[in-house]
What does this fold into?
Amino acid sequence: MILSKPKEIILITFLSFFIGLAFTFPIFHEPQNWGIQDWDQHLFYHEVPRLTVIEYGQIPLWNPYYCGGTVMLANPQSRLLSPFFILTLIFGTVVGLKIEIFLHIVLGLVGMYLLARYYSLDPLIAWLPPLLFMLSTMFTLNLTVGMTWFLSVAYLPWIFLFYQNSFDHPLYIWATAGFLALMFFEGGAYPLPITFLFLFLYTLGSLSRRRSGGSPLILFGLSLFITFCLGAIKIFPSFIFLWDHPRHISDYSGYSITSLIYSLFNRDQGLEAVDKFSNERGFWNGITYGMDENGVYIGLAAGLLFIFGIFLNWKKYWTLILCLFFFLWLGFGDKAFISLWELGISP
It folds into this structure.
């Protein structure tokens, strides 16, 4: 169950606020400075709707400044339907996005803490998962290079927490679907199908542990249906746009054993660290793309605790462990001996 102690929720929110503030303080040192690589593109995706609303008083359905004119609302990476877009309207694009980064870190910390407590972790130990989840290089590197859609990843613990609770109390499926729709509203075109794939696999594993709240498959179907209903205003225009203009990709990508171990346990996670690797193809060596696509630093101590936890609890949490190995293998992409990407299972 979700925590029922208001004092604990208030306390963790208060602590998450200050952790997030300390973590993001450097980006507010020069409020109007912006970053590298994709930041120009994503600032453009935010400034055009801001200009459309403020100067022209119109709904930003169209982007007249891009490729001779193209869609704005239907752009899967657009974030104008996010409730946080109000910050861009009030404070400007650069400052508004920096405030969003801070607030999403707070949301992710609180959500992961609540999920850890759902799994009966001690209140002190329950701080480890949120710190690893939100303060690792996974989140930091993606925002460093301007992938603003990655902010939606902060909703993952909330989605899974409410989905777990819906097995006992089906009304929580509305909260699950609400956060899934919000994920897409915030540009999460990549996280959304991956999250649905995880929920589906977890649901299949849960069939052997039926609960009184409702059938797991029915709950999953409801989460999918309600998400599409709540998010229809953007989901369907985006699908039509992508159907008419599909993105064809033939890149060779995925973790190798070497790049995964480095990304998880090596403290040098700077963008230039990718220069230490070759572009060698194969399961054991080489790296594809940059550190922002690879970095997921957790450290050796957390890794050992994780392995120890699996060893102690594999019978109780075998469904989650199987999901872990599925997505781990999926993460090897084209480098795996038997690639799930090539089999067409990739989201």
In short: Strands lie at 62-63, 70-71.
